[in-house]
């Protein structure tokens, strides 16, 4: 049985806002996936994750560098709907890298 390539990651905390430590943890998880799964990850792409140190409120933010896209939101602009269809805001991030460069499968 062959797996499917993994080309993205979405990570979040369970509360609307995150502590600095939680934000750092989200960034480090993203860095580990980018380094581990994207065989073509460059130092500049890994450094792109350093820009998340300045998490801004006010919606979803995205940056792209050479096919790698990082998106993030701090309590506004990212969330889930609960069983009553109420939006639950979360601090979260997404990371996407080129499929052809992925060495991770599920």
Description of the molecule:
The chain has 106 residues and is of the alpha+beta class. It is 23% helix and 32% strand. It is built from two helices and four strands, in the order βααβββ. A four-stranded antiparallel β-sheet has the order 1-4-3-2. A hairpin with a 5-residue loop joins strand 3 and strand 4 (87-96). The longest helix has 18 residues, at 20-37. The protein starts with 7 loop residues before the first strand and ends in a 10-residue tail after the last strand. The relative contact order is 0.30. The mean pLDDT is 86.
Topology:
Elements (H helix, E strand, L loop, with lengths): L7 E5 L7 H18 L5 H6 L12 E5 L2 E14 L5 E10 L10
Antiparallel strand pairs: 1-4, 2-3, 3-4
Strand order of the largest sheet: 1-4-3-2
Rounded to the nearest angstrom, the distance between the terminal CA atoms is: 11 Å
Strand content: 25-35%
Q: Count of helices?
A: 2
> Which value, in Å, is the CA radius of gyration?
14 Å
Ranges where pLDDT stays below 50 over 5 or more residues in a row are none
Query: Please, what is the average pLDDT?
Result: 86
Query: Which overall shape is indicated by the principal axes computed on the Cα atoms?
Result: globular
Q: Main beta sheet: strand number and arrangement?
A: 4 strands, antiparallel
Helix content: 10-25%
Order of helices and strands: EHHEEE
Q: How many DSSP-defined strands?
A: 4
By secondary-structure content and strand pairing, the structural class works out as: alpha+beta
